[in-house]
Every structure is written in structure tokens, then in C-alpha cells.
Amino acid sequence: MFLKHLSLLNYKNLDSATFDFDTKINCFVGHNGVGKTNILDSIYHLAFGKSYFNPITSQNINHDAEFFVVEGTFEKQEKEERVIVSAKRGQKKVIKRNNKAYEKFSDHIGFIPTVIISPADRDLIIEGSSTRRKFIDGVISQSDNIYLNKLLQYGKILSQRNSLLKYFAANHSFDRDTLEVYNLQLSELGQYIFEKRKNFLSEFIPIFNKRYADITQNKEQVDISYKSQLFESSMASLLEEQLQKDMALQYTSVGTHKDDLNFEIEGHPIKKFGSQGQQKSFLVALKLAQFDFIKQISKVNPILLLDDVFDKLDEQRVAHIVALVATNQLGQIFISDTHADRTEAVVKNSDQPYKIYKL
Ligand SMILES: Nc1ncnc2c1ncn2[C@@H]1O[C@H](COP(=O)(O)OP(=O)(O)OP(=O)(O)O)[C@@H](O)[C@H]1O
């Protein structure tokens, strides 16, 4: 699968641009702030229906414009697929595939398998648990639409249950039957999400470990483990046990929305004890494992977006990625970089066809 053609209108700082891409390597080079990352992000937008960097749609519209349009023509299993994402200020975003608008954006997720490696990935290590939940949910959802829909349903019921708890507090009331309806649904969905995440991680972690060992030549031992309250108790029992606390807090304090991942190096949290280089290797391994996992399930090479990696990674890690490109393990790749010479040297080295766009 590859992106053949991209056209942008008023997407962030890009007023109007069109590209005809190579099926292998495409590089965007230019000074800081010219819009290289924004081009990669527009491709991400076609795949996920939102920006990787700024999920607020209206902020992706050029400051001086009323709307943006991103249009991509992909070739997937020898068929041409046209995806258009457009947004107008004050209106709902529209995503179309072959001229037909999606009713549910979630139906589009996974259609254009895509992985991004970016300096912003650092949030996965330094930020709170929601970034790590989003990561695993994103990887699973790209290959499992049922999971994505259950996850969305869970979020909806959770917020309804929280509203109910607030209503009880505001009105000094309690209605066990109504609460029970939410508990039942939340328990079923939570249990499903827990099982899926657990099974996914049992497959994903060995892939990740292998990628980390390849990048670092087996230098140190890293690990990912799944942290969930559901290991101790079923979702239904947790909700029951914590009812008094939830009533006092006026929100649901237990469930899969509290899950997290432990990222460790030699048995210690990588956030506190990993060097910068080890953290970078960890993140690249995580993303390449995402690539492998999606490829294994979808049977196509995901599009790989490499944002600023040459600037932010050291030589050894860059050499590793280039070697992957050279051995043709990857599919179509988009690279952004500030140094034209460096990019050219790297991609020439890979012996693969490429195009360089100077912005
Ligand atoms: N909605 C918007 N309207 C106009 N400009 C925007 C909008 N959102 C972001 N920008 C601008 O886009 C520019 C950043 O573009 P981008 O991140 O793609 O740069 P880059 O070429 O990748 O730079 P670097 O090499 O520093 O990463 C900034 O100048 C930013 O202010």
C-alpha cells in the first residue's frame, strides 16, 4: 500500500501544495518551521482522521482561512482509494472515502495502516497513563474495529455513570436500579477491554523486546508490563466495592480507564533511570514493534512517517533505521529533516528509489 498523490489546502501553515510521491522514500527538507512536520501530519490525518500533534480540528485550519482540505490517493491491493478529510470552522469534520462520507469516523481507522515516529513520542514516557493507554488502544484499533467500538462505548457509558454520580450528590439522592444499568454495561465492556489488552500485550511485548535488542545490539534488558486493577478483581466487583468512594468523589475511580503500562529498563522505571539514548531506543523500538504488529495482522506494510528522526536520534539509531530501509523490510516512508545533504546521503545509502522535496 502506498500514497500516490497528496494535495493540501489551508492545512496549518500550508496554503496550497500538491505532491506525486515515490512508492518507497519521500523526504521533505527545509528550515525549521517551513511545514515539513505539517505535511507528515496531514498524511497522519488521512489515516486517523485527526492530527497526531494537535487533536483540536479547528486549530489545524490555517489561521487566515475558514477551512482545510487534505486529499490523498492511495494504492491499496492494486485498487485506487481516494481519502478526503475536510473541516470548516464551526462545522463538523468530514471524512470521505471514494466520495462517500463516513457516518462513523471509527469505521475508517485501520484502513490506511500508518505508524509515526516523532520527537513528540517522548510523551509516552514522561506523561501520564492516558498517553500510554492511547498508544495501545491505537495499535489494537488499527487492526480490530470491534475493539475500537467497544472502547468508544465504554467512554460513553463511563461519562454517563459519572454524570449520574454527580446528579446523586447534587440532589442528595440515590437510585440503585439506574446505577445498576450502567454498572452492568461498564463491567461487560471493561472486562472485554481488559482481556483484549492482556492478549495484545502478550503478543506485542516479545516483538518489542526483539526490536529493542536489534537497535541496541542486546545492550540491556527492557520490559513492558500491563498494570490494571482488573488483575485483582473483576470489573463488576471493583465497581461494587468502590461505590461509597465513587459517590464521594462523584466519578468512577476504578476500571480499565485507569490502566497503565510500566516501561522498565533493567527492572527500573525508564522514565527515572533510562538515559536519554536508552529512552529514544525504547520509543523507536515501540514504534517499530507497532509497525511489525500491524503488518502481521493487516498483511500490508504500514506507511511510516519519520519526523525529524535524523536530528533527534544519534548515528547508531539512524543507521539502524536506514539498514531497515535498505533491506526492504519497510514499505513507503516519509521523512522530514532540516539538512538536505544529510538526508540525501542517508537515503542514497539505502539503495532504494527516493524523491526529495525542498521546501
Ligand atoms: N493553524 C495554523 N495556521 C498557520 N500556521 C500554523 C498553524 N498551525 C501551525 N502552524 C505553523 O506551522 C509551522 C510549523 O510547521 P512544522 O512543524 O511543520 O515545521 P517543520 O518544518 O517541521 O519545522 P521543524 O524543522 O522545526 O520541526 C509553525 O510556524 C506554526 O506556527
TrEMBL record:
UniProtKB keywords: ATP-binding, Cytoplasm, DNA damage, DNA repair, DNA replication, DNA-binding, Nucleotide-binding, SOS response
Keyword Nucleotide-binding: yes
BP GO terms, sorted: DNA replication; DNA synthesis involved in DNA repair; double-strand break repair; SOS response
Positions of the RecF/RecN/SMC N-terminal domain: 2-357
GO CC, alphabetical: cytoplasm
KW Transmembrane (keyword) present: no
Residue positions binding ATP: 30-37
Annotated compartments: Cytoplasm
Function summary: The RecF protein is involved in DNA metabolism; it is required for DNA replication and normal SOS inducibility. RecF binds preferentially to single-stranded, linear DNA. It also seems to bind ATP.
Family listed: Belongs to the RecF family.
Name this polypeptide is given: DNA replication and repair protein RecF
The species this protein was found in: Salegentibacter echinorum
